[in-house]
Design brief:
The structure is a homodimer. Chain A is mainly alpha-helical. Chain A contains 6 helices and 3 strands; from the N terminus they run H-H-E-H-H-E-E-H-H. Chain B binds a DNA duplex through helix 2 and helix 4.
DNA sequence: GCTAACGAATTAGCTTGGCTAAAGACTGGG
DNA sequence: CCCAGTCTTTAGCCAAGCTAATTCGTTAGC
């Protein structure tokens, strides 16, 4: 029963992840761009902590995105060791486009539900959010 | 709002996937083992279709798992081109342990919820299941 | 104010796991 | 028996994870 819920969530998320596509970015690169869009400019260390990845891994992903012109590095004015990373305009545009497409896909799935079913999901959202807390 | 739900589910599943058996398997390898546990012995083609990966990718993952003794290949008795892949005892044991850990993790998360919140999740389960349908 | 310790980012080298292209192995229809 | 189609495998590319070690800037102790 509990395990049934767990498996269902896993299956749903799996379907969702497979729905990727859009730009020719991998999920990691997209994840970084989205983190920057949601949380604003951050250091490499903050990014790697949030994405649960080591600093060297994050550094490489950031290199690729920088080479693609989707984000930019800037030295921190307070601490010369740190590097502040932020989206470029192109990066913002790509995140917006991706969000639009994924929302559309999800809305399409939701449209197969009844009003009552949607209300049930709406009620479950805060609980799911609580489960997902760090 | 819709996109909040989508993002929350993704985050929850992401957190869940981090719970796995001690063995140092990547998520893909674990995914293959779980698919075999749930759906039974399958050909390489069936596996790659189900995991939404190309046959060469699946072939390599299967090679690693075979080298670790977690699954075994056998020729199909009906069609010499096909290869039937199935879990070994060690593979079954590893899947069981992973399931045990994930269930325990999830139960732990659920225990922080009130009875009402659990009831809300219970009501949402069939709806989530519907969303997750293929 | 020097120096040693510490912290943040980076580089180097390894591994997994995607992909495409192409080759082998086998089947089945004509 | 051949030929076209199907399934698996090999080869080679690239993204993205890791650890270990390096570089460079900061901070603390003396």
């Amino acid at each position: 029963m509990d395990s049934e819920l767990r498996l269902t969530i896993a299956r749903l998320a799996r379907r969702m992840r497979q729905e990727r596509a859009e730009a020719d970015l991998g999920p990691s690169q997209l994840g970084v761009l989205i983190a920057l869009a949601v949380r604003g400019p951050q250091t490499l260390g903050e990014l790697s902590t949030h994405e649960r990845v080591t600093a060297p891994s994050m550094n490489r992903t950031v290199n690729l995105l920088e080479a693609s012109g989707l984000l930019a590095r800037a030295a921190s004015p307070f601490d010369g060791r740190k590097v502040i990373i932020d989206l470029t305009d192109a990066g913002h545009a790509l995140v917006d486009e991706t969000k639009r497409r994924r929302d559309a896909w999800f809305a399409e799935r939701l449209s197969s539900l009844s009003d009552h079913e949607r209300a049930v999901l709406d009620a479950a959202l805060p609980v799911l959010r609580k489960l997902a807390e760090e």
